[in-house]
Amino acid sequence: xxxxxxxxxxxxxxxxAAATMAGVADGxxxxxxxGAGILGGLGVGPSATGDWVxxxxxxxxxxxxxxxxxxxxxxxxxxxxxxxxxxxxxxxxVCLSFGDIGPWVxxxxxxxxxxxxxxxxxxxxxxxxxxxxxxxxxRGSEGGGHGYDRVATLPLLQSVLDAVxxxxxxxxxxxxxxxxxxxxxxxxxxxxVGTALATCAESAWPDDVTTRLGEVGEDQTRYGHVFDTASQxxxxxxxxxxxxxxxxxEAWVDRLDEMDDTARARFRAAPAARDLDTLSIYIGQxxxxxxxxRRSVAEVVTELAAAEEILRRVGSQLS
Length: 319
Ligand SMILES: Cc1cc2nc3c(=O)[nH]c(=O)nc-3n(C[C@H](O)[C@H](O)[C@H](O)COP(=O)(O)O)c2cc1C
What we know:
2 domains
C-alpha cells in the first residue's frame, strides 16, 4: 500500500481523489469513490440549488466515508446558499477554486473540514497557501473542465512542490498507473483525477456522451470560452474550459464577440436535442485513454493502484 498525506488524512487505501466535476460527480458518484477506497468527489455547479445540494450530500453521506465537495468561489459571491449548506454538513473535505477563496476558508476549517484548492500557477499556489488551505491541487492545463490555460501538469507540479510547504496533489492528464506513479515519485501526495473517472458507470453523464468520448482522440480537446459565452453562466473572463471540440466550438472560437442570440438558443436547445455537435462535453487530454466503456469507479481505481508495482520496479532499479 502507498501511504501519503492523502491516504492518512482520509483513511484511504489508494492515493487518489475523485475530481469534483459538476454535471458528472453527484452524490452517487461520490459514494462510488468512497466505496472504491479513494476520496470521493461531489461537484457543485454555478446553478445548483440548495435542494439539489442537500439531496446529493444525503446520498453521499449514506456511503459513510470521506468525500470532497467542489465549490466555485465566483459563484458563491452570487449565492452563498450551497456553501452554507456544505459548512453545516461538514464533509471531510471541500475544494474551493476559481476566484477569491479567501473569505471561504476559515469557516470550513473551524468545523473540521479539510480545505483544498486547485491552482494553475505557482503564484496561485502561494496565494492559496497564504489563504490557509490544508493542501493545494496543482492542476495542469491539459486537465478537463474549467481552469486556466497557463502551465502543463509536470512543470507546474515540480515548481509548486518546491514553492509551498503544504501537501500537493497533482491534476491534469493522470489516467493510468504510470501517471499516478510519476506524480507520486515527483513528491505529490496523490492525484486528483477527473477525465479518467468521468465516464464511469456511476457518473451522471448519459450514455451518448460516454460513447462519444470513447471515439475522441487525445488531440481533439480544445481550451476556450466558446461554451461559456454561449451559456452565459457568468464565468469570470480569465477562466475558460477544456472540452471536446465540435462544429459549434470551431464555428465561434475565433469570433466570440459576434455570437448572437440564435447561436445561444441553439446551444441551450442542444442537451434536449442530444445535439453532440453543439453541446459542451468538458474533458481533458487524457480522453485519448478512454475507450467508451462505462467501467465502475472501483475498476478504474483498482487499475490505478498498480502504480505501487511500478514504483517498486523503479525502486528495484536503484543500486
Ligand atoms: C466534466 C468535468 C467537469 C468539471 N467540473 C469541475 C467543477 O465543477 N469544479 C471543479 O473544481 N473542477 C471541475 N473540473 C476540473 C477537475 O476538478 C480537474 O481539475 C480535472 O478534471 C483534472 O484533470 P483531468 O480531467 O485530466 O483528470 C471538471 C472536470 C471535468 C472533466
